Amino acid sequence: MQLGKFVLECHLPILGICRGLQILIVAYGGTLIPHIPDVYGTSALHRLEPGSGRRLPTEHLVRIDVESLLTDCLQNSRIFVVSWHHQAVDKVPPGWRVVAHAWDDGAIEAVEHEHHPWAIAVQWHPQLSILDPNHQRVFLALVQAAHTKYFWDDPNLATGSDPA
Questions:
Q1: For the residues 35-50, what does the mean pLDDT come to?
Q2: Is residue 83 part of a domain?
Q3: pLDDT tens for residues 103-146?
Q4: Which range marks the domain in which residue 72 is found?
Q5: How many structural domains comprise the chain?
Q6: Which of 46, 88, 112, 117 has the fewest CB atoms within 10 Å, i.e. is most exposed?
Q7: Each residue of 70-97: pLDDT tens digit?
């Protein structure tokens, strides 16, 4: 929890994935739904639990706020995502805003920080769809944000000059 706060306070770009989203929400005073089916039912499966008790990922559609950094990154406001969780965001803490919901049940799927230049957290697993150009764009945008931030912090690095 402290790491999530530290990264944001340092204004470093951050991409929270699944548990990372949940940690950021709780660290800043938000709450989680302990078990999605208890609140939203099973109209959208967020993970598969066959009779064997094994938990497996599943895929479902997410709608994203068109006025969000996430839509800018994805270049799309609807996307199929790989999901593998049974908890979800309940109450969003101050400073964060919801930017995506599951299409079928409305569960919160992504948030962004309102006062941070690049802080996105998603409930799904874009790394499990890395061959999909939509999901690649999130990681490329994170790398670009980190690269830009790197140069912002030390003007000598941008020019290649020696700070000494």
A1: 65
A2: yes
A3: 888 899 999 999 988 999 999 999 988 899 989 999 999 999 98
A4: 2-46+55-147
A5: 1
A6: 117
A7: 999 999 999 999 887 678 899 999 999 9
Residue 108 in domain: yes
Burial classification of residue 99, based on how many CB atoms lie within 10 Å of its CB (0-12 exposed, 13-18 middle, 19 or more buried): buried
Query: pLDDT category, 162, cuts 50, 70, 90?
Result: very low
Q: How far is CA 70 from CA 34, 82, 124, 134, in A?
A: 25, 16, 13, 11
* CATH of residue 81: 3.40.50.880
Task: Give this prediction's pTM.
Answer: 0.82
In a domain, 154, yes or no: no
Q: Which amino acid is residue 157, in one-letter code?
A: L
As a whole number of angstroms, the distance between CA 104 and CA 61 comes to: 8
